[in-house]
Structures are given as C-alpha cells and as structure tokens.
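Predict the assembly for these two chains.
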Amino acid sequence: MEGLRLAALDVGLLVVGESILAGLGLVRDTRAGLRYLGLSLVLGWAATGVCASLAVEAGLELTVAAVVVLWALLVGASFVVGLKVSGRPSPVLGERSWTGRAVVLASGGLLVAVLVALFRRVDASGPLHPDAWGFWLPKAKVIFETGGLDTGLGGFTSFAHPEYPPLLPSSEAVSFLFMGHADVLLLPVQHWVLFVGFLGAAYGLLAGRVRPAVLLPSLAAVAMLPTLDRLVGSSLGDEPLAQLFSLAGIAAALWLLEQDWRLAAVSGILLVALPMTKNEGLMLGVALVLMLAAATRLRAWRTLVPLIGVTLLAVVPWRVWHAVNDVRDQSDYRFGDVVHFGRLADRIDRLGIALRDLPGYVLDPGRWLLAVPLVLVLAVLLSRRRTGLAAVSAGTVLIAFAGYLAIYWIGLPEIHFYLDTSGERVAAPLAVFCAVLFPLLATEAYALPSEEPSRPVLPKTSSNSTTRPRRSAWPGSWRASRRARP
Amino acid sequence: MSRGRALLWLALLAAVGVGLWRIPGAFRSSQQAVDTVRGLTQVERSLLPARSFDISTELFVAAAKDLPVDAPFYVATGTRGIDISNEFVLPKTPIFAAYWLLPRRETNDPQQADWVLSYGADLSALGLDYARVIDVGPGQQLAEVQH
C-alpha cells in the first residue's frame, strides 16, 4: 500500500515534469514525452523540492493537499508559458548496423541487470550513514510531523548543521506524506526510482547527439560507478546534488552545441535546485555558469544573466529565513575566510594536505572508475575544434575542484578527519558530471577529422564577398539561432 | 592514424576496460548488502545504524514502547555497568535516540525532560526525582521524571 502511494507521488512528479517540458516546447508529442520521461521525473522532483522548501520557509504547512496545489500551480504556469513557446523537433539517433544493434542489446541488458541489482541493494538498505540519521532524515521527519521548519525543542534546527538548506528534507517529507508515515526503509526505493529517472534524463537529453551504442554502455558504466552505487538510497544530500549538477551540465553543454535556449532553461531549473540542496551547490552552480560565460565569451549574455541570477537568488530565501529565525550556524567553513590572508597563511599546511589527498578521492578508479581523467583527456582532444564544450567540461571540474580545495583550506574541522569523512562524497558531483558527459565528448571527439590541417582551410567565397571565415561556430550560429528563435 | 585519434581510441579502450572490470563488483556489492539484512525484522533493520557503532539497542526499543509521543526526553550516558567497545558509542547514542524516537523530542537540558534514557549513566547524579525507573538491560534504564 505504501508502495502504491509512493507510486502516486512519482506519477505526480512525472506530470509536473512533463508539463514543464511541454511549456518549454521540448515535449509536444508522445515520442518526445517518452524520450524525456526520465528528465520529467527529475525536473518534477527538483521543482517540487524547490516549491516545497520555499513553502516551508514562508511558513506554509506542508501537506499532501499543499503539494497537489503547488503541482497545479506549476502545471498551470507551464501551460501559460507553453502557449507562447513553439515546439522543437525531437530527433533521436538510431543504430543501423548489426554490430551497433548488438552493442545496444548487450549494454541495455547489462544496464537493466545493474539496475535490478541496485534495486535489491537499496531495498535491503536503510539510513546507515551517520549523516543520514544524524540530521538529514531527522529534519525530514520533523517537517513530516509538524508540516514545517519547527524551531522548538527537538525541532528542525536542533539537529546538526541547521544551516543546511531544506530542499532534501522537504522532498523526503513529501515522500513520507505520500507514504502515510515516515518509513525510512522504503525511502531508498524512492531514491532508486529517482536514480533510474536520472539515467533516463541523461539518455533523453543526449539521444539526439549520441548513438545508442555509445550512450547505453556509458550509462551502464554510470550505474556501476562504485561510490555512486553506495550513494543511491543513502538519503545523503550528495546523492541529489551529484544528479542535479550532472544534468545541469549536460543541458548546458547541449545548449552550447545547439544554441537552443530551451536547454539553458532546463539547466536553469536544475541550477535553482542545486544551492537549495546543499551549500556547496552554489559553488558548483557558479563554476558551471562561469565556464559557460567564458566559453561563449559573454556573447549569449541574454541567456547567461538569468542563469547566473537564478543560481545566486536561489540561496536568498533560505538565508533570510535563517537570519530571521536567528538559527545557529554550524558550518564547517566560513566563505569569508577566503579573503583573510593571514588566516590562509596560518593554515597553508591544510592546503598542502588537501592538494595531496583530494585528487585521490576524485581520480581513484576504485571509487569513480576513470570518469574524471577520461573527460580531461577528451577535453584536451576537443580543445581546438570544440573549444566551448571542452572548456565547460574540463573547466567546470577544475574550478569546482579548486573550490573544494579552498573549502578544505579554510575549513574548521581537523583536516585529516574532514577529508576522511567527506572526501569521497564531495567528489561525487565532479565524477558523476564527468561520467555523464563522457559519451557526448567521446562522440564529438570521434566526429573530428582524423587529420587536422596545419593551416585553416578558408571556405570559397564569391568574388565580391567580404565574408571572413568564422573563428568558431559559436558567434555566428548563435546570432542566426536567435534570429530564428520564436 | 593521428596522435589525437590514437589518444581517443586509447581513452575509449580504457573506458570499456574499466567498465568490464567493474561488472563483477557491482553485483557482488549488491549481494553483500542483501546478505547483511537477511532474516532481520523491519525494526532490527531500522536499528542497524546504531548496531554499526556497537550501540546496544534495547534501550531505544523500550523507550519507543513506554514513552508517550509528546514526551521530551534526555539521554544520559556513562560507563556504569555497560561495556563500551569504541569511542563513538557514547557520543552517537543521544544522536541516534533523537532520530529513532521521533516524534518524541530530545532535549539537552535534563530539567526540561519528562523521561531520562540512561545508557550507562548515574541517574542520581542528574539531581532529578523519578516517578519510576525501568531496568531495560545491563546499565540501561528508563526513568520517568517526577516534576
């Protein structure tokens, strides 16, 4: 019975997600609806989480009825937007050769088998990680019991890290509300459903540019990433953070390649959810948007400004609530310390230790296979012909890595303890981001001419033409795309 | 073949190789997780986080049975009459109690508590009067505070 109620929640999330995608013009027929089913689930989850956390911050009581009203508002707003936005065709690559079909069959079978094994594991698991039962789940239980952010005795703010934003606890509370009670042993199954949605989302987004024979084996590898395998169903914030960041990265990368603002909008919705999920989500979102700005040389500022705006504004409601309610801050670091040069100098040994140990967490094949090094290699291969894509994939990872180094440098806990207890988890967004971008980068690298000319070949122009060869595809095609845009 | 193309093929081979290497491990870890909980009841599974730190769990089960859902409680810890196997047992016990006993609320101030959960503590040292004390197991008591 609880399972059925949870299934009703997922149907609601799918409806909201499909509505958002229909509003953006990405889903206008059944085929596109099926293609983006996974993305719908993740977008529905993100939008519901954002709305639920804003609602509890505003003092509204979170109930099933309130969630349904929020969904109705989201669907209605998407419908209104959809009236003004035209649809876009949704072509999907297929396999013609028998070899390609055989690879699809084998890797599809492997993916299903891995997901079944993962389901068995999450069905047998529970909140075993100390952070899950130390604060993530108790906060969710409090929202479920009281309908809001109770600041009283034993309430939401009495648990560790009261400064962490409430998107994940609110989402878990929504799951509990639909279940009818706070069943923490069923919750991992819901996380598994969202993980399947995450893989489906990556498939749907990339299916227009990556062959199934490349995409399915890559997604099977993502499902087998050893540390991600342990994170799914853990109820830790790093699990949705990694998934949201990775999908925002794919959508942003596709926006660079296709210059379709709809993909930037998808990325934007996910970027809003990022800093509302975990505090370092802001750093990850800013790293991605900064690299987009660099890759486009700010030429697409009409799209970039809203992206930067929503990423930064997403933290404001929670910060306001935090300040108004005078809640203690138990952060492991203070961002302001980055500019306290004396303190930085005093702690320079921490930077050395982080520089020595953190790469191991990110690059270790036993944790993340070869996701990060392979993407860095592919980015180097793409750096001349697909400069923007290479910059966004490698640059975002490097900036975010530098951000984590800075956090360990200015962090308050003892550095070895800090790295031991968090190093593996903080690497998750970077590694999963790389893992899901791998098939796109590999496809783009494969499409490059095998022998690059030593000098650029100028296109033939008419005798009276003054057209100059473009330095890159970006500026001209962006302008053309904007003119053609509805 | 250009250097770039060779590097690409090398990267693809590495990706395939490391993926194939991971396949047995992916299924093994799933089976291990299933084996860990085989035969456990739902309640026993929900107590596994405490068991993973070697925290005795009888106290929490008894508290869930005897404490009213609106009763604030305090967790006192010590080493009286109970074996403590590692340094995490005592600090983690109140944290687990706060999570597992919700919607009952934990307080850090024994004076605000209606109930005290003693995990190896000396109840008399808290300076409270008790309406009743229930022995749950070695070194573990539930005490109802008399206000």
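Chain A has 22 helices and no strands. Residues 453-486 of chain A have pLDDT under 50 and may be disordered.
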